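## retry 2 of 3
previous attempt timed out at serialization; input unchanged, resubmitting
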Amino acid sequence: MLQAPGNTDPAQLDRRIVLQSLTTTRDDIGGKVETWADVATVWASKRVESGRRLFAAEQKSPEEIVTFRIRWRAGVTVFMRVVYKDDFFEIIQKPVEIGRRAYLELTTRSIREPVSAFSNEFSPEFQ
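## retry succeeded, writing output
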């Protein structure tokens, strides 16, 4: 069955993902602690855009560009990340509204788990 552009068969939203945002709290001695907090668990479709392998000095693992489509929701930004199974994906461009607030497309890049909101700041064990 053909569908109009922007329409998604709800049955295609067959992956469970978690949207997370970076939060800052204080520890017992007053220091800042950044952690990722769950914002929402939603159904999504997953489409792999590319599987480029980048072997730069800092990055030894393959890079994967993945688009997740979810039902439209307010507040999703590029400062969030997606968790699917045991994999982490940073949102690399502004979420795209599909239809009239029907869906959002999230273009993401696979990452190692970052310490902060920016993918170039990894924990010391990866440096």
